[in-house]
Each structure stands twice: as C-alpha cells, then as structure tokens.
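Predict the assembly for these four chains.
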Amino acid sequence: MTETTHMTETMADTAVTTRPPGRPRSERADKAIIDATLALLVEEGGVAGVTIEAVAARACVGKTTIYRRWPNKEALIIDALASLKEPQPELGGASVRDDLISLAKVTGVEKGDRRRVGVYWSVFGDGDKHPELHRRFMRDVVEPRREVMRSVLRGGIEKGELRPDTDIELVMWIITGAIVHRVKAYGAGPMPDDFAEKVVDTVLRGVTPR
Amino acid sequence: MTETTHMTETMADTAVTTRPPGRPRSERADKAIIDATLALLVEEGGVAGVTIEAVAARACVGKTTIYRRWPNKEALIIDALASLKEPQPELGGASVRDDLISLAKVTGVEKGDRRRVGVYWSVFGDGDKHPELHRRFMRDVVEPRREVMRSVLRGGIEKGELRPDTDIELVMWIITGAIVHRVKAYGAGPMPDDFAEKVVDTVLRGVTPR
DNA sequence: TGATAACGATACGAATCTGTTTCGTATCGT
DNA sequence: ACGATACGAAACAGATTCGTATCGTTATCA
C-alpha cells in the first residue's frame, strides 16, 4: 500500500505529519476494495476469479482508483491477505484443552464469519500457481497463529498434560485439518458450536477404550 | 460421454455390436483428454484454470475433437472426475487400526501420485461456483470411500475396539482432514510413509498420558 | 474404390479481462 | 478563487477464451 502521509522535519520542530496537496485518498475506497477482493477470492474460489473489474464493481469504485494504489492484481491480493493479520486471541491458559479449543474455534470462525477458511483454501489451492502469494500469506498470517498453537502444545508437554513423545506438528495438522476441512465442506451450512471441542477432546483422549 | 457403438437387433440374431460408418473415434484421444483435464484441474487450482484450448494443447488434440465428445467445459470435467471412480482398496480387516491406515494412505496417495488430493481440493474450492460438479464428485467418487471408512469405524465399535460413544463422522473429518491438509500443504515435497499411521494412532490413543 | 465420419489445424465472432488514457467532477490546502 | 490531486465513468488496444465453422487428411467399412 502506498503512503498517504508525509513526514517532514524542521530544525525547531519535532517530526510533523503533513499532507500532500490535493484531494486525499478515500479511506472508504481502500477498505471497500480490500473487502471486495477478499470476498471475491472466497466466492470465486481462487486468484483467477479475482478480476480488477469485478473488484471495482463490487467496491463501487472506478478501476482507476484501484490502479492508483496497486500496480497489478497480485499486489492487491497480497495487501488484502495482509489485512487478515490480526491480534492473537487471548488464551486463558487454564489448561491445554481450553487453549486448544480457543485456537481451534478461531481457526474455523473468526468474528462470526468463515471468510478466513475460504481465503485459506483458495490461497492454498493456488499455491503452485502463485507461490509468492502463498509464501507471504503463510509467513505473515498463518505461521504466527501456528506458532501460538505450537507453544501451547509445548507447554502442555512440559506441564505433563501431554505425553512427552507427542508429535507437535502432527497434532497441529490434525486439529487444523479437521476444522478447516469440516468448515469448508459444510459451506454456509450448520457448524455445531461444540465441533472444535469435540475435535480437541478426541485428539487428547483418543477413541479406544481405556 | 457419447456412445461409440450401436446395438442392433435382428430377428434371428441376438444383440450384436456393430459399428457406425466412418472413421471410429480415437480411444487414445479420449484418454489423453481426460488426463489433460485432470492435470490442469490440479495444476491451475480450479475449474477456471481448465481451458478447452489448454486441454487440447496438452492432449495433442484439436479442439474439435473435444467438442465432438462434450458439449462444454463443465460436462468434460464431470466426466473427468467420474473417471476417478476406482475399485475400493482391499481391507485386511485384521484390526480397525490396520484398515484405517490403509484407507488413510489411499486418501493421500493413490497409485503413487497425489493428483487425487489436488482434484479434491480444487473441486471443493469451486463448490460454491460449480455446485453440480461438486455434488456429483462427492456422490460418485468421495462418498463411496467415506462409506467404507464409516463401516470400518462402525465395525470397530461393535467389536469393542472403539468406544461405543465414538462420533464416527467426527473421526472421519479428523483423519481425512489431516491427510488432505498435510498432502496439499507439502505439495510435491516429502510425505513420510508413516504419516498415515501416526495420524491413525494419534486418533486412536490420544496424546494425553494414560 | 467410394462413402462416411473422425482427425488436427486454423480462423472466426462474441465475450471478457487487463492496464492505460481521457473526461468532467469533487475535495482538499492556500 | 486557484492549484493540485483523487474520484467514477467510459473508451481503448491487446490478449484470451468460448464455441462454431471450414479446411484438407486419415481410418474404416462395404
């Protein structure tokens, strides 16, 4: 994204934010464009379905307004994905089980919508065709969250709540895979509120009699 | 797919397969077209990336040859997906664990390649855009396999190898989700041979100390 | 040999998308 | 008021795709 403010320094002054001349860029347009991009990425099922014209139409914006901000489609999508960076969820830390459930729930449904899973599926699916997009999305959006789950699992081993030989990466594949898969499979259909809990409990306890 | 043979009946004869006049259609072309379609579906990450012209080029076939067989792209893809119907894998039946591992392995890698997961991911991703495609793929290709796994799990409960309150659908989401997710994530990268075993063992035993 | 139809190659019109440019208008600081 | 810049709308050339049509060629049968 391009800068919208200039920093100026004078001798007697500290740094001051000033504004370039002319009409300022519309923040509303920024937001509408990013939103439309993500929505199309999900609905059309991939990067190929994201058309600058479709984005413009959906955001009620001229194509000019998009091209003034981003040089091409890929750059736009990169910024749209980066906007999904969000503060980590607060973890109670009471138990591994509670923390994993919190993380699993966030994986599937963020702020009440499932756009996150749709984006994830699309970007993953286009990984071979758009490796840079995939790389940055993984690094900036996905990996930070995975790291949180990883540390929860590590802590669980240290505290003796998990077996010491637990394969952390494996458990992460299982939990996130189940959630993502299920959410994607059911689309807008019903997603039981306790699905995340049941996944976590199954992984913790197993399904064999004890 | 259109018929390539005509059935004719005469009074004194039983049904006889005869052939329409003219040059017969090339079976080699049939196969090459289906193969190219599936390959593109995986490589391009979705239905949108499957171009009739690309299929023709890849199959070394004229576009005419494709349009002579299928009326449009969607019909072609439907038939290409239907070609993935395959005989169920033989299950030893020695234990739930062994059978689940066999099924999990087949889910991830079929006959040495991972095209199956790629197709699965693509068709799933385009589910909203091409619901008919998705529906038929699920019904004809995916569901029969899910049914096998389902019956293995049901049998495991009856035999007492699994807890009676085991949520069968949940376990299926977990196992298939983990495998599909992991295979897709690593692309052409290494896929440890024991991944399927470890997933199944984790789900069976859980990761908490016992 | 002749009839028939599939073959690959190629061209086509209609439609769509990209990225650029031009237009007149709107919104800012001075 | 004036200069500067962003705004949406529209037109544009070039590329790509779809589905059709038209070549001359090739395979099969009678």
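Chain A touches chain B through 47 residues (CB under 8 Å). The CA atoms of residues 57 and 63 of chain A lie 8 Å apart.
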